[in-house]
Amino acid sequence: xxxxxxxWPKPVLLKGTKPxxxxxxxxxxxxxxxxxxxxxxxxxxxxxxxxxxxQRFMLVCPTGEVGEETVVVNPEIxxxxxxEEMEEGCLSFPGVYGVIRRSTKIAVRYxxxxxxxxxxxxxxxxxxxxLHEFDHLNGIVFIERMNETDxxxxxxxxxxxxxxxxxxxxxS
Length: 172
Prior knowledge:
- The chain has a single domain, classed as Peptide Deformylase (Alpha-Beta Complex), CATH 3.90.45.10.
- 28% of the residues lie in helices and 25% in strands.
- It has helices at 25-40, 124-137, 148-153, 155-167, and strands spanning 45-47, 57-60, 70-81, 84-88, 98-102, 105-111, 117-123.
- A 5-stranded antiparallel sheet has the order 1-2-3-6-7.
- A hairpin with a 5-residue loop joins strand 6 and strand 7 (117-123).
- The radius of gyration is 16 Å and the shape is globular.
């Protein structure tokens, strides 16, 4: 299966996801292809809806280094603390950037590729990446978390993305 980035406003980005029921060879292959795409595009995270898959899994790789990604299946956020604002971008929104307020420390639970349950505490940039990708699993895109000033600054680019989506019949 070929994986490619779904650009906003493609509906799969806005609908939320269903839990993964099992990890098999096909799932592992899809996760590996997603990792290749993420690195090719110089991303640090990628959620399944961003490649038009409406399932609850994502890749997190705050270093951006090949092979250091974590595949996170059916994640839950157990606790959030602190808050910090930082500029973010998103592979599904090429050329769009804005300051987003996110928790600085989180506790999470998820399954790995061996279906083992993992619990971790994440801080700083890795917590931010996790929260950004987690939002995708819930149908929340980062422009929804932007302040009015950043939304206004990105208005022309967002219109271009809408027009491209319409021009390609929703396949963008």
